[in-house]
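User: Could you check the structure of this?
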Amino acid sequence: MQIIEYAPYIAIIGYLSYPKSLRINEKLLYYISIIHNFNLIVFSAWTFVSMFNIMDKYGIVFKSNYYFQYKEFDTIMMYFYLSKYYEFFDTFLLYLKGKDPIFLQKYHHIGAVISWHYAYVNKLDSIWIPSFANSFVHTVMYTYYLGCLLKIKHVRFIKQYLTSMQLIQLASTMGLCNYYYTPPNETWKNYKVIWLVNCYNIGLIFLFLDFYKQNYIIRKKS
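Assistant: Sure, the predicted structure tokens are below.
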């Protein structure tokens, strides 16, 4: 039980301790990158469709421990939580290419593991809102990454919308969770977890805004 409790922190230590100077054959790295992005496209799309089916089957209900009483929902959320560890490979692949990931990416991955860990372990029903939105955004995002790897020019137009999608996702899901899952719709213990996630999301919003400013406003003017 203690291993599960400390799982995100053990994983984060491993994430930060990754050997940044490690390199592998470029061709092998290319194929690994394709497989990695393809896996996340399929998984994200599967999660999105599965969540849609859950909402269609059981309705949209804002109540503590409503969705988690259903085994299929718990299973989907467990896999989605575990996928946040797998997404560490986004950063590892950059290191293997000899690139240094920006602070935004590292903050994003570390915070996501912690947030989804506490949300899943404490069975926050509100987890369906960010999971539904995040799985859709990730389907689009990793499709873009794979398209770039395969040199498909038609996907390039997506780039300018990705940061906007992330910002809309963060602001809307945070607003919905705080509006619909305040006590008594959620327990006070779980509401504290929601605010832990809020703190992470607020930091993420500011980082994405700065990224948008640097890449789509300042650079465009230059």
